[in-house]
Amino acid sequence: MSAIVQFENVGLRYGLDSETLSDVSFSLAGGGFYFLTGASGAGKTSLLKLLYLAQRPSRGVIRLFGEDVVTLPRKRLPGFRRRIGVVFQDFRLVPHLSVYDNIALPLRVAGMQEADIDAPVSEMLNWVGLGDRGQARPATLSGGEQQRVAIARAVIGRPEILVADEPTGNVDADMARRLLTLFEALNRLGTTIVVATHDLPLIAQVSGAQMMKLDKGRLSDPTGSLRYPPKPQVNG
Amino acid sequence: MTSASRMSDRRAAAAARHRLLPEGRVAGPMPWIIAIMMFLTVLAAATGLSLGAAVEAMGADLAGRATVQIVEANAEQRDRLSAIVAQTLRKDGTVRAVRPVAAAALADQIRPWLGQDAASGDLPIPALIDIELTPGQTPDQIGAKVERLRHQLNAVSPKIRIEPHAAFLAPLAGLLSALGWLAAGIVLLMTLATGAVVVLAARAAHDSHRSTIDVLHLMGATDVQIARLFQRRIGLDALFGGVLGFTVALLVIVLLGTRLLATGSELLSAIHLPWTNWAILAALPVGGVLLATLAARWTVLRSLGRLL
User: Taking CB atoms and an 8 Å limit, are B216 and A109 in contact across chains?
Assistant: First the structure.
């Protein structure tokens, strides 16, 4: 499989502070399932921000879909962003929009005809088990339900890469397992999945997934190859 | 897809886009500020335009008029000179009308200042002849014509004087003209202030909807897509404020016009608004909405340009 994401000696510094990320190099194959782990403050969210183009690095090269996005003109970034789905740690649902409209947002941004929106949104609502909550406002939903709306919104545009920042941080173990099943289903459809989490038992549940570990802003594998395969699931 | 279903799809898409920013069109001070701005702008513009029209009408009316005075104390001599002057002027091709002012009419005009003695004949009062020159000439040509008549009449008697009416009213016309320019300056300042208010409102709206914008941005919305949401909202606010301000200003203008006419003053009734000027006033709210929309678009695009 060809590399869909490549980071080469990437560094990120906020203002005059010391580097949040230093010399980060790795590549992700298209269709892979990746976990990004590390302690709080290790730089997981910063790395994901670089990945979903919310931030430019202070140095280094980032290639997405084969193109250098660091030097890419600003006006071309929206086209790249539409190919990436993001599940934010804090969900970032639009509070005044219904669940239905929140999920439909990426399709509307992409300019899809209104008549073509209903079927995929309804399908997605059923997929995340919220078929009867389409007209509800996000504030009336539980944390787990909001999480599922955020996931539905991230995947409805059939992104080539799905980036999720601590997607199971606010849900119970059962819900975490169900969310992971959603990601696996999406991965089987060809989407590259990148999940930042410090929930190691969760990582162990996905066979074939690879793991990157960040430690104080550096990948603990300096060679750039992903040498942290998930441990086999331990039963009992 | 049929044209009807395309239309319905477009409407549904527009409705969905409009939901992206919370509704509440006439919430916040901006529509009311724009209404006040528009009210003052329309009043200032109406003042400037009507004063301009008054100066123009006054100039057209008075430019070709003059009064010939025969300043002769001896009544017989004065009458004889008056007859000669009237005859001379009637023969002149550049003079369209010659109207000797009747002694009784003259006495009526000065009676408020000089009392009943004005008509007794003991007081030497100059004889006056109003003349009207042929129309369609420039002020310079009229001035040259008056100068020629002055020489011609001085040759008859040095006691004959000619005064063009434009000279009497030149200071007033100058004042009206200056007030007109002042009004134009106020319109310009109000336009700039309206633009500034819209820029501030657009910035505030951009800041208060920052989280929604960030989400849209990260989903791949272009700057123009996001700016359109704001320009529509601010355009609607400006439309509301513009129509309200314009309507109230219109009522005030009509009321003031009625009052001016009621004075019966020839001078004040020269202040009027031709229909072309009404069209200019009606264009102001349209211009206001355009200005607000463009200012909002520019502000939001600039703010978004600072993001990645």
Answer: yes
